[in-house]
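Summary of Year 1 activities. Much of the first year was spent building the evaluation harness for sequence design. The harness presents a backbone, in tokenized form, and records the residue chosen at every position. We chose the following record to illustrate the format because it has been used consistently in internal testing since the harness was completed.
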């Protein structure tokens, strides 16, 4: 999966670069899904780390543009909300599967 960075703060979208192409993607295996989840968590951590670094710079007066921190903090917040929403949906799906009768 190839992802291209977008924007001045190094934002990396969660949408693959080949979206909209005519070739159908192969069905992911369990291992590939696990790798996607781990990759998403790593990206979340990177976004939060960048926001934390910029907040320290803002607090110490070393930040030249407060806009960079504002954008990074908002990006970290939205990314965290998305991750929590995906986790909640996964837990709901798991619970629904467990309620199924054999």
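For this record, the design step produced the sequence shown next.
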């Amino acid at each position: 999966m190839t992802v291209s960075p977008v924007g001045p703060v190094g934002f990396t979208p969660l949408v693959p670069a080949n979206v909209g192409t005519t070739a159908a993607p192969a069905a992911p295996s369990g291992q590939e899904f696990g790798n996607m989840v781990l990759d998403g968590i790593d990206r979340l951590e990177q976004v939060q780390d960048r926001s934390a670094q910029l907040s320290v710079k803002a607090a110490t007066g070393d930040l030249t543009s407060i806009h960079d921190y504002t954008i990074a903090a908002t990006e970290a917040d939205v990314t965290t909300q998305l991750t929590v929403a995906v986790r909640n949906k996964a837990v709901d799906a798991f619970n629904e599967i467990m309620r199924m009768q054999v």
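The chain has two helices and no strands. Quantitative recovery figures across the full test set are reported in Table 2.
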